[in-house]
């Protein structure tokens, strides 16, 4: 009984982490805070950049954003990051739908344990893939930002881009998806363990029971 409760708790923790990671990955995709920098000449002005737009924050005017007009005109890391983040969001949503039907707390398909186990495993794999496709673009943009920050060919007077808040949110989202997928797969692999041990126990006791019945019949005769 405790094993069943523990497995159900692990499944709920796994699906909760995956849901959190998916929401944060969607937020990361659209936040215009992947990179930012401040102008030394005007500390009241802060520039930010995301996958879809660039913004300038001024104390007097407020926030002004402009969408990128050309997809092909973007740097390679931003173009590919758009595709990967969309892929991560789609895989995460599909993982939530698939693994949701495999949870023990959902009464649908209780008699089809093999199907529910496969759904959990598939959902875990989808969350793994969504986590990887979220971590790759975030880490790539961070790597390019570090390279440009320490590039000696750029004059020191030129402002340098630094890490924005969206990068840290994206890292947290990716690892949440990976951990959630691991927990779901672990719970799915343990699902059939009690049943398997029960079947072996029955298989072992059947010959002994048959032997006792034959012995009892022989004594009566």
Structure in words:
By secondary structure, the chain is α+β, with helices and mostly antiparallel strands. The chain is built from five helices and five strands; from the N terminus they run H-E-E-E-E-H-H-E-H-H. It has helices spanning 2-30, 76-100, 113-149, 165-189, 193-220; strands at 35-38, 45-49, 53-58, 62-67, 162-163. A five-stranded antiparallel β-sheet has the order 4-3-2-1-5. A hairpin with a 6-residue loop joins strand 1 and strand 2. Helix 1 runs antiparallel to helix 4 and helix 3 runs antiparallel to helix 4 (165-189). The longest helix is centred in the middle third of the chain and has 37 residues, at 113-149. The relative contact order is 0.18. The model is unreliable at 193-208 (pLDDT under 50).
Mind sketching the topology for me?
Blueprint lengths: L1 H29 L4 E4 L6 E5 L3 E6 L3 E6 L8 H25 L12 H37 L12 E2 L1 H25 L3 H28 L1
Antiparallel strand pairs: 1-2, 1-5, 2-3, 3-4
Shape: elongated
In quaternary terms, these chains amount to: single chain
Mean pLDDT: 82
DSSP summary, beta strand count: 5
Please, how many helices? 5
Classify the helix fraction into a percent range: 55-70%
* pLDDT < 50 stretches: 193-208
Q: How far apart are the first and last residues' alpha carbons, in Å?
A: 44 Å
Secondary-structure-based class equals: alpha+beta
